[in-house]
Amino acid sequence: MAGILLAAPSGVVLNPETNRTARTHPPRATYRVQFHRGFTFDDAVNVAGYLADLGISHLYSSPYLQAVPGSTHGYDVIDHGRVNEELGGAEGHTRLCFTLARHGLGQILDVVPNHMAIAARGNAWWWDVLENGPSSRYASYFDVDWDPPESRLRNTVLLPVLGEHYGRALEAGAFRLHREGAAFSLTYHEHAFPVSPPSLDEPLGTAAMRVRSDTLAFIADALGHLPLSTATDWLSVQQRHRDKEVLRQLLERLLREEPEVAAAVTRVVDEINASPDALDALLEQQNYRLAFWRTAGRDLGYRRFFDINSLVGLRTEEDRVFTDTHALVLRWLGDGMLDGLRIDHPDGLRDPEHYLRRLHNATPTAWTVVEKILEPGERLRESWVVAGTTGYDFLNRVGGLFVDPDGEKALTGFYADFTGEPTDFAAVARQKKHLVMREVLGSDVNRLTALFLTVCERHRRHRDYTRHELHEVLREVIAWFPVYRTYMRASNGEVHEDDARYVGEAIEAAKAARPDLDAELFDFFRDLLLLRLPGSDENELVMRFQQLTGPVMAKGVEDTAFYNFNRLVALNEVGGDPGRFGVSVEEFHRESAEAQARWPRTMLATSTHDTKRGEDVRARLALLSEIPERWSAAVQRWGAINESHRRGEWPDRNAEYLLYQTLVGAWPIQTDRVIAYMQKAAREAKAHTSWTDPRPAYEDAMRGFITDLLADRRFVADLEAFVAPLVEPGRINSLAQTLVKLTAPGVPDLYQGTELWTLTLVDPDNRAPVDYALRRRLLDELDDASPEDVWRRIDEGLPKLWTIRQTLGLRRRRPELFGAQGDYRSLEARGARARHAVVFMRGDAAITVAPRFVIGLGGDWGDTVLEVPDGRWRNELTGDVVSGGAIRLGDLLRRFPVALLAREEPAV
Q1: Tens of pLDDT along 256-281?
Q2: Angular region, 794: left φ>0, alpha ψ -120 to 50, beta rest
């Protein structure tokens, strides 16, 4: 459908194909925006010109298919066939696409193939599943276990939405039966649920007898004889649906045309609502079981997105599911409205490689990146037909450059002394993975245990193992698993050598950690995971296991351990290892060269909507690795000053230590932002409070402590005196990090607002409104500015905006230097301060020079020189021209702290 004409505003006709020559494909640089009802398509329209002038080639949009009303992020999709109405709907979307094309901008869209939100009637597919059970036309769309070990839950969806136990809620009158025309529903507060048609047999039959309505009696009897909800063959499903629709239309007409019959039905509804027993009888006939919300921790029968009960897993591996969930997005790609996709959480999919290949076959020219979280040392599978990842691997690689390994010993020792916390991050991570498997993902582990038990029953040598033993083996292996997941493909017996290694490492480590469990059981489990024992249940166990290790890693490590291990929180980022203190220049160059060879079009990120803290906060906090003694002395002073603000033993020292780092990294910061962040951090840590079990006493103590210390003039004065000398070095770190991102192999991404200094924390703090009018004005003012003018306005963020504009300008003029065809070569500085320089060359004609460990550098490069290849080189950030040869870094960086040299092209 390429070349289709799109209706644009004011009668203008847009053909995106005519704009393809103006756009860069693949992207040159992306700019991520978070859409919500406070930032709509029209708001993005208003900044398109600014982004184009900044040097951006593609708008990178958060998900905008129809989501739950009021969604702040778009990952809770309820309808894949519509554009989110709160953002402007289809018309607003067309205006956006038209405007982007007019400015020569393309668009990348974030899509969510793994799950959907189950928000009442909004999700028609899920509503149909609840109404019709396994016989629903959409039962196969969702990852529901219709045959769980608990017989009471067979062919039933457990819905843990009640604020109290079912019986108590029932007796308190919390449930109501409603009728709107011929449509019946059950409600619990703001929640609504469908009524299974056969369960209306008795209520409608009662009303029919009272008014002697043969038609109503026929409808009631016919509803009671619909094909069973457990019938899942296609003919039965279709027949049930057709019969149900005919009966619904007949009932609707009857109730509309015969008021006496309608009144009788209404009276029966009122009688049911007045009787807990009658309501209970009706609820027992539904295809779902309403339950206390805490039951989700043990008995939930469907796969979720991590631990979010309202997001149900999709079976995107099914042909119909893929087609129905991707039709609109694929149409946009074919029409030229989109140029690429960001695939959210591919590790949740049953077979990510199969999904990505199918996506590629449907849209082979799209630039596609995946939110694949790579653990240190892990490599993206080359068999995946994608451009690369969303950049967390780069984020940790570039951030590590600014962490001084010489500070590790002192910081580690002081952290242990001040907090009393363990300093072995790997051990902390395993402990927290066990915690979330016990308290957060217990139902997922239990379902896998039941399947493991079924498998053992098929193997006589292993059938006598107890459910408890199997449960413990599963938990221990998952706790020791070194990566998010493996990618065994049971359908063809495919086992990658990396997967075999990861499984072997986990099994051997788990076996050593649990000598109380039979070693042969661990070996049996290894054979199962490596597909050495084929069979339908055996294969299913492997595929489900792979979908569970990722959520355990995400919830146990990223969302728990990262908030408990606070030695240097600049290292606590998605895909990072806080136990690994920094990245050497040599390692950075090696990884960058590999990226250029394997994934030259991957995305490069330094901030995202999911990062634990913003790039500028991390850049400042990295400085603490250079001054461990100064930092330790400050924390000891602050602890003494603030002792009087504590409430007994609360907050704990570990939280206090995190608080001080947060204040240093984000200062100046408002009290309410600090309180909100620390409450979230404490709940994520799950040490003294949590999301599922909040402890008001602890949280009140934390809130009071923060309020009091930020009102304490002595503490604030000391804090500001400590932060003041870190501000400029932190900004230089940020400039260095930004320049490296903009010139390293890959496609750089800017997260909304980060083109100026942005001292934000984890969401929702990093999703605050962005002042684009300010950014537009500042960008315009750069036109006549010198480097000295820019640096004088450092507090306004001009140096960062300048670095971005100038660098993206070079990428726009000379794309061959930075794309797949441009090579990557490390360069070495010589001299006493050489360790402070990160230098590399792209395309044999662009050289990046970035400083690190800038406090230790002190602005004095001494005798350090850089050997620049022959030619005339223009510094894009100062306008200075230098000739090849030995150049003193002090001279090169005299006017601006980072440099980008471009070899002048020969005159034509």
Answers
A1: 999 999 999 999 999 999 999 999 99
A2: alpha
